[in-house]
């Protein structure tokens, strides 16, 4: 909004300007404008976006983090469609979150759960330390079950008993970018079996 704060609605000069332009206008309070009205509009926009996305597929999750001038750790999560349309899923201040990599992993999982795993083709980000930590969360779990005979046996039994389709866990390989998605997706797909074993 052109970097104009909602508090301008209570500024006397702004009030005079609006009364000059539209004498009969009833002013909203800053709380109504930045609270109820903004939340209502956000909900409406989100519903419209979800309706558009329900018929689409070939999604890519794009995430990026940066530090603002006030040293806040900000993260943007976007969804890009196969037709190259971009939708902002969320913009979060993660300054107070200790395990940012774990949180990023959870956000990715939420987005995939919400839209359906079969609609995704990639997860894209830079190689920041927090992104690498999110990937390590999935990769550590994968490597444990790949290297443990007993763990692997328990996981395979849980997969069969829960009738989970598809193959087992995938390991991340640095030279192949698609394996990031495959690794995270395999952990998500086998979540019930992993929880049963652990």
Automatic annotation (TrEMBL):
| GO CC list | nucleus
Q: Which UniProt keywords apply?
A: Metal-binding, Nucleus, Zinc, Zinc-finger
Q: List locations, semicolon-separated.
A: Nucleus
Entry keyword annotation includes Zinc? yes
Q: Which domain of life is it from?
A: Eukaryota
Q: Which GO terms describe its molecular function?
A: zinc ion binding
Which residue ranges does the record assign to the DUF659 domain? 29-135
Question: Which InterPro entries does this chain map to?
Answer: DUF659 (IPR007021), RNaseH-like_sf (IPR012337), ZnF_BED_domain_contain (IPR052035)
Q: Which PANTHER family match?
A: ZINC FINGER BED DOMAIN-CONTAINING PROTEIN 39 (PTHR46481:SF10), ZINC FINGER BED DOMAIN-CONTAINING PROTEIN 4 (PTHR46481)
- What is this protein identified as? DUF659 domain-containing protein
Organism, by scientific name, is: Rhizophagus irregularis (strain DAOM 197198w)
């Amino acid at each position: 909004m052109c970097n104009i704060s909602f508090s301008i609605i209570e500024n006397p000069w702004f009030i005079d300007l609006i009364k000059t332009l539209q004498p009969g206008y009833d002013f909203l309070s800053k709380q109504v404008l930045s609270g109820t009205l903004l939340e209502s509009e956000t909900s409406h926009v989100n519903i419209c976006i979800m309706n558009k996305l329900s018929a689409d597929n070939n999604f890519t999750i794009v995430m990026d983090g940066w530090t603002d001038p006030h040293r806040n750790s900000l993260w943007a999560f976007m969804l890009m469609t196969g037709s190259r349309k971009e939708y902002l899923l969320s913009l979060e201040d993660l300054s107070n979150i200790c395990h940012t990599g774990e949180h990023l992993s959870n956000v990715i999982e939420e987005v995939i759960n919400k839209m359906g795993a079969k609609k995704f083709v990639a997860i894209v980000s830079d190689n920041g330390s927090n992104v690498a930590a999110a990937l390590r969360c999935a990769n550590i779990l994968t490597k444990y079950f790949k290297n443990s005979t007993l763990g692997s046996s328990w996981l395979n039994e849980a997969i069969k008993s829960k009738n989970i389709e598809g193959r087992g866990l995938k390991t991340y390989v640095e030279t192949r970018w698609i394996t990031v998605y495959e690794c995270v997706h395999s952990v998500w797909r086998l979540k019930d079996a992993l929880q049963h074993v652990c």
